[in-house]
Amino acid sequence: MKTGTLYPLLQTLENNGYIAASLVLINGRDRNVYQITESVSDAELKAQIETIITQKPKCHHFGEINEPERTEHRGMSEIGG
After folding, report:
1. Residues with Cβ within 8 Å of residue 28, at least 6 apart in sequence
2. Beta bridge partners of 34
3. Does 74 score more than 70 pLDDT?
4. 5-54: pLDDT as tens digits
5. CA 73 → CA 16, 59, 77, distances in Å?
6. Which pairs with CB-CB distance under 8 Å and at least 24 residues apart come from 12-16?
């Protein structure tokens, strides 16, 4: 799993109700501990994880990452310059 994948995955799973997070003090530091919610089967959780991981990441303002920009470039003579 690539760096930067785990915590967004956990956040998405929590936001969609597949897991629940609890803040626990461990060795003097606050840590999130995650548990699968009772209403979710192992198969549902696995399918949701696979769906999230295989989706292309989206850049908030510019569409999909690594997708070539699809703008047309016109020369100055075409725009009256």
Report:
1. none
2. 21
3. no
4. 888 899 999 999 999 999 999 999 999 999 999 989 999 999 999 998 88
5. 42, 23, 12
6. 12/52, 13/45, 13/48, 13/49, 13/52, 16/48
CA distance 3 to 7: 9
Q: Which amino acid is at 71?
A: T
- In degrees rounded to 5, what are phi and psi of residue 16? -90, 5
- For 23, the token pair is 């803040």
Q: Residue 77: is its pLDDT beyond 60?
A: no
Q: Which residue has the tokens 């060795």?
A: 27
- Token pair 């198969």: residue: 43
